[in-house]
Amino acid sequence: MTSKKNIYVTHILDGSKNHCINYGLRAAVWGLLEEANSTMGVETHHITVQFNSEFSLKLKAGSKTRNPAQYFNRMLRLKVATPFDVSSYFFVLEESTSGNIHAHIVMNIKLSTVTKLRDSLKATGWLKTDKYGHLAASAINISDGYILSVYKGSLTEQEINEMDMMIEDYPSESFWKCGSKATDLKGNIYCQRYEAKEKIAINEGLADYLCKSMTDSLFYGGKNYAMSRSLKTLMLPYLEQVIAEGKRRSKSKAL
Questions:
Q1: Residue ranges of the chain with pLDDT lower than 50?
Q2: By CB neighbour count within 10 A (0-12 exposed, 13-18 middle, 19+ buried), where does 109 fall?
Q3: What is the pTM of this model?
């Protein structure tokens, strides 16, 4: 990358393995972690919220003056960021298999306010409910880490065999477990998605995971992500370093 022009473009490094990188999102995670490391009592959190059908439709429609991401950014500021003095955050909106929208929000939160922030999100009326009308167990998750997932389709046959062998024969020693299963045309059940047993601390790998959905056209004519102005400022040192390295490499190739 040699300029800021395409910083939010997701680059597929290996199509067969679905390895992606987005320098803009990596810079955003880096900026959040740098701020949290220098601010006492603040920690970077990954918040996943599953929206109900009503709010999902509102998001898809956006508003007369804002696209869906801009609309949610405004709502997030009003309901969460401003009341809890959160200045640095970004989010990525995705569509679930049900057709409803869910959001991955990464923000710096004061540790003393995490519980109140969770309660505030529950009171918004945005979240998914179960068949009894109660808040669904999966509606909200706030974590200081994330679970690493790997899909079978991104692995070679040898890697799949080794992964399955470790999970089946040495389950207590394996770093992985089966996250979700599927059935093939012959009726055979197989592991579709592998999942790490323990969460890992938030790092740039979270950006690489979330940026995959930034290649999708979720909303016609609008982005499915946004970030705060404060975070855009925090990102600059990382981006300047990446651009400088990109120019150096480009110059070396030209010689």
A1: none
A2: buried
A3: 0.84
